[in-house]
Amino acid sequence: MQPGGQLDLTVVVPYYNPGPNLSGLVAQVIEVLRDRGISFEIIAVSDGSTDGSDVGLAELGPEVQVVHLPVNQGKGHALRVGLGLGRGSYLGFIDGDGDIPAPVLGEFVSCIQIERPDFAIGSKRHPGSVVVYPPLRHFYSWGYQVLTRMLFGLDVTDTQSGIKLARREIITELLPILEEDGFTFDLELLAVARRLGYTRVVELPVEIRERFSSTVSPRAAWQMLVDTVRLTWRIRIAHHYDRAMAVQRSAGGPARPPEAPLAGAPDRITPEA
User: Where are the domains of the chain?
Assistant: First the structure.
């Protein structure tokens, strides 16, 4: 256990009518993290879900907290709520649709214990990833990453994979100024973090073998493009986040706490040069 009641890791599981596999996914996440011997919590956030898939979720273990939002407002909104409640030294999420299997989290835990990066993020384009999804989705993904690299200078191959962990101090500093409610939240988080100097990002492989339930229709792809253009305007033209951060800091906003080692991590970590 970390000092002051802080845990090693918070994993938020956002979901909206994910079907019958939700409880199985959360149970597997619990098993993976218990096996790692770290202190953790799971915050499952229902984004107005109505399919009853979360029945019995809170009974899976004392580490599980379930938050019910009354109406569907988008993945980004659900994540902001869940991350805002987290007590972990690292905070992050894994999508509740089950496309990314829980055992993938094991490598993420090893990464944050040993390397202590700003972010550990999954990438479908990592050489070690095993991903089977439709050609149209592949085209959307490739095109979007080219676009975001051009617009934001992000040196990552996949901003949208549904698994990410970040140091607590980054989430604490950024969460009050993030605005995206939809799927563009992932991009906003990484792009604003980069602008503030958080550039130590480790990409890790993911597995998507059995199914790829998330569908991206032309309409949804268009909405993501519109949201991305708006985000570009706020970051690069209007300097919205720079001003918001200046206001937050002048008002005595979140301070950056010293890093604490995770359970099982080496006592000394050599920072990147």
Answer: 7-250
Round to the nearest angstrom and report the end-to-end CA distance of the chain: 30
- Reduced 3-state DSSP string for the chain: CCHHHCEEEEEEEEECCCCCCHHHHHHHHHHHHHHCCCCEEEEEEEECCCCCCCCCHHHHCCCEEEEEECCCCCHHHHHHHHHHHCCEEEEEEECCCCCCCHHHHHHHHHHHHHCCCCEEEEECCCCCCEECCCHHHHHHHHHHHHHHHHHHCCCCCCCCCCEEEEEHHHHHHHHHHCCCCCCCHHHHHHHHHHHCCCCCEEEEECEECCCCCCCCCHHHHHHHHHHHHHHHHHHHHCCHHHHHHHHHHHCCCCCCCCCCCCCCCCCCCCCCC
Edge-to-edge strand list for the sheet holding 163-167: 64-69, 40-47, 7-15, 88-94, 163-167, 119-123, 201-205
The widest CA-to-CA distance across the chain, in whole angstroms, is 50
Residue 190 has pLDDT above 60, yes or no: yes
Sign of CA dihedral 106, 180, 132, 20: positive
> In angstroms, how far is CA 143 from the centroid of its own chain?
21
- Alpha-carbon span 30 to 76, nearest angstrom: 23
Phi, psi of 68 (to 5 degrees): -105, 115
pTM recorded for the entire structure: 0.88
Burial (CB count within 10 angstroms: exposed 0-12, middle 13-18, buried 19+), residue 108 = buried
Confidence tier at 254 by pLDDT (50, 70, 90): low
Altogether, the residues listed in the chain come to a count of 273
Q: Give the pLDDT mean for 85-111.
A: 96
The highest-level CATH class for domain 7-250 is: alpha beta
